[in-house]
Amino acid sequence: QIPRTTAPVVAAVHKYATQVVPDSTLLFGMDANTYENPKADQQGVTAFAEFYSGLDLNSCYGPTPNPKNYTTFHARTYLQPQLNKAIRYAEKDEKGDRNPKDFIVFHSKEYKVLQTTKDNTGDQKYTEGMVFPTLRFPSDHGITWTKLLRTGN
After folding, report:
1. The whole model's pTM is what?
2. Any domain includes 52
3. Is the pLDDT of residue 113 over 70?
4. Is 2 left (phi over 0), alpha (psi -120 to 50) or beta?
5. Residue 1: inside a domain
6. Domain that holds residue 90
């Protein structure tokens, strides 16, 4: 079984921010490695949101992110390493990795989300249903950015 490391990492960063450097601002961009429909050995996005909300944290997608708000959609081809993970193009929707994995996390009392945007093209737009990386966009995670309003300390 693969250990779920996202929650312990967030807990450690939160503890450090609140106990060691309490006058600092926590703004943490991360690959949370969360899944819309998690298997037993995977971290679900809904459970992750409940976890960070319990620490008085929020994310760029709010306290209850949409599990269908994908930031990854990749499928290995037979031309890539790890042939055991390769799938046919016709199987991309059912076997590809399309999940909401990328977050920006912060203390709820410090910021309000004004706008969050994704990009999987390199042109500041996100094309739903498009498998990536591509020749123009070489990452298997989309870019997530957010505009925040500072509301307190």
Report:
1. 0.89
2. yes
3. yes
4. beta
5. no
6. 6-150
